[in-house]
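Chapter review: from sequence to fold.
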Amino acid sequence: MYKAKINIDKCPQNHACPAMRLCPVGAITQDGFNAPVIDKDKCIGCGKCTAFCPKKALYLEEVQ
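The C-alpha cell string follows.
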C-alpha cells in the first residue's frame, strides 16, 4: 500500500495547493499558504496528487 507524502523543500508554499482539489477523498488540507498536510488515514494512495503537482513536491511512499 502507498500513501502520499510531501517534500517540504520542493513545495514553494506561496499559493493554494492545486493538488487539493484533485484528491478524491479530501486527504489534503492547507492552512493559508503553508505546506499542505496529508491525512494518512484518508489517503488511498491513488497518486492523482503526485501526478499533478507541478513542483513534484508530492510523492507516494510505500507503507506497511
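Two observations follow directly from the output. DSSP finds one helix and four strands in the chain. The chain has one domain: 2-62.
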